Amino acid sequence: MAALDYLAEERKMAEFDVEEMKIVWAGSRHACEISDRVSRLVASDPVFRKDNRTMLSRKELFKDTLRKTAHAWKRIVDLRLSEEEAATLRFYVDQPAFTDLHWGMFIPAIAGQGSEEQKQKWLPMAYKMQIIGCYAQTELGHGSNVQGLETTATFDPQADEFVIHSPTLTSSKWWPGGLGKVSTHAVVYARLITDGQDHGIHGFIVQLRSLDDHSPLPGITVGDIGMKFGSGAYNSMDNGLLRFDHVRIPRNQMLMRLSQVTREGKYLHSDVPRQLVYGTMVYIRQTIVSDASRALSRAVCIATRYSAVRRQFGSQNGGQETQVIDYKTQQSRLFPLLASAYAFRFVGEWLKSLYTDVTQRLQANDFSTLPEAHACTAGLKSITTSATADGIEECRKLCGGHGYLSSSGLPELFAVYIPNCTYEGDNIVLLLQVARFLMKTVSHLASGKKPVGTTAYMGQAEHLMQCQCEVQKAEDWLKPSVVVEAFEARSVRMSVACAKSLSKFSNPEEGFAELSADLVEAAVAHCQLIIVSKFIEKLQQDISGKGVRRQLEILCNVYALNLLHKHLGDFVSTSSITPKQGPSKRCCPC
User: Which residues lie below 8 Å from residue 385, measured CB to CB, with a gap of 6+?
Assistant: First the structure.
């Protein structure tokens, strides 16, 4: 049977330059070229096939993962791929693996927290994958509360060693990817104890398995924690458990860039500011935001193609039925998700520049923007990953019964993606961190201290608390200035209201706990403002290609007005807009 291209007619109707839009999505012509070239490389290689992944047993799936990661590394070496090309290849291989943690957490931890001597010793081996590492922080009893970790690292001055120990069942390291089967080493986070004094959580490089036969070293209990949610999905990752029974390591395997223990057992802070650690955190969260746009775009692509091909009802006189994509109910659910994918893409681009700025400032011992950058990245990680997880599930429902099939790609995409809502900070916990920063910002307004960065709009709090929305007709909502002011007014008013309520409590922590639900909503309002603002700023840049700018303007309006409609209660209750001014689904430019 000859192949049929049911989407050909749809593609012919495009009102914009598709190739130029690809460049906008990729971020640059260079990135677009790499993406196209590497995607073809992966697609044409039978080792990287993924059509059978959901049908493999756990054991076969893990063997498949080992085969793919080894082959990917061989291709990277043989083709002498750049770091950017190698990262793109790993993205298109599209299978969670131990290498994700080796490159994404283990190496950055040593590079960011290790001394120059430690980096010279460990990083060359890690870059050549002569050792394979993981990031052992989360424990059975503690995840988000890092300061509650129970694993201990007690210094023995007579032996010049640290004794790593798991004193309780809940102190077992639990969840680290790559730990279950593969990792030979780990950066282990434990409570540093010298001469009976607890100095808090510090990182240590610990060898877990023999480099000769891969067996666990004495005193170490290590294994895989078992099956996770979904078929295939994240089960290709060997998430593990780890316990220490008085395991000894040399003193120089404590990560010593920020602090160290001397031969005599004296604990010292180095001259390097501790705030430098936050640079790595900003980088990781920026990556997660960019990954959110990629995951959501894949789901939207599947749902859009299905909606264009699928026909249902509406047949007249024996003619064709109506395309599902032509139904307004389908459009009102699908198009905001497409707009969200672009919104997250552009705010992810902006976060890259923020990371560069933060890094340069940290190197110059300028920490003025660090609290704002930390809060910003925490909030955006939370907002984008939650929206993406919900969006993938909505795309599954948009595909009807077919979306429930593993062959649609959506069930596995959902199962692989949803851990993003938990790792690198539980999303609600992160929003509460944002809320603390917002409350601190509001408290400084009276002193005349000007907010910076993404909170700069709070410097106009007096105006934003009193201004009235100028929308007279639906078309007024297509004016960027009108949209931004409405989002700014909503955010300021929600934050100020929380601050006033908080001031009534004699114990601020009790107040914070009591008002936590309202504080989360205030944080959400602030983060949504950031995303809307960065989308609008993107449109102010030079954008080439016939019709590209116009389509992006439409997507920006869809994203902003859909949010406004979804959170209409917040906008109206804060008097940021009136009930009559609120946009209906009908006026959103879908």
Answer: 288, 292, 420, 421, 427
- Look up residue 213 and give its DSSP letter: T
Instruction: Please list, in sequence order, all residues whose beta carbon lies within 8 angstroms of the beta carbon of residue 540, skipping any fewer than 6 positions away.
Output: none
Residue 271 binned pLDDT confidence (cut-offs 50, 70, 90)? confident
Q: Answer for the pair 68, 94: CB distance below 8 angstroms, yes or no.
A: no
Give the position of tokens 């012509």. Answer: 29
Mean pLDDT of the chain: 93
Tokens coding 300: 């939207």
Neighbours of 306 (CB within 10 A): 20
Name the DSSP letter for residue 161. E
Largest CA distance in the chain: 93
Whether residue 241 contacts residue 423, with contact meaning beta carbons closer than 8 Å, is answered with: no
Distances (CA, A) of 213 to 184, 223, 462, 531: 11, 16, 68, 50
- Helices assigned H by DSSP within 364-460: 370-398, 410-417, 427-445
Both tokens of residue 357? 């700025």
End-to-end CA distance of the chain: 37
Give the whole-angstrom CA distance, residue 536 versus residue 533: 5
Tokens matching residue 389: 């997880």
3-state secondary structure of 250: strand
What single letter denotes the amino acid at residue 350? W
Find the helix or strand (DSSP H, E) in which 162 lies.
strand 161-165
3-state secondary structure of 590: coil
The two counts, helices (H) then strands (E), for the chain are 19, 11
3-state secondary structure 105-156: HHHHHHHHHCCHHHHHHHHHHHHCCCCCEEEECCECCCCCCHHHCCCEEEEE
Strand partners, 156: 161
In angstroms, rounded to a whole number, what is the distance separating the alpha carbons of residues 275 and 356? 15
Per residue in 284-307, pLDDT (tens digit) is: 888 999 999 999 999 999 999 999
Instruction: Return the closest-CA partner of residue 93 out of 49, 31, 37.
Output: 49
Asked if residues 502 and 318 have their Cβ atoms less than 8 Å apart, the reply is no
pTM exceeds 0.85: yes
Instruction: List the one residue out of 453, 450, 493, 446 whose CA is nearest residue 469.
Output: 493
Task: Tell me how far apart the alpha carbons of residues 541 and 554 are, in angstroms, rounded to a whole number.
Answer: 16
Reported as type and span, the H/E element at residue 174 is strand 173-174
Tell me the sheet residues that pair with 268.
Answer: 260
Question: Is the CA virtual torsion 294, 300, 303, 308 positive or negative?
Answer: negative
For residue 461, the surrounding DSSP H or E stretch is helix 461-466
Residues annotated as part of the active site: 424
Alpha-carbon distance of 229 to 384, in angstroms, equals 21
Measured CA angle at 258 (ends 255, 260), to 5 deg: 60
d(CA 25, CA 548): 11
Residue 439's pLDDT band, with cuts at 50, 70 and 90, is very high
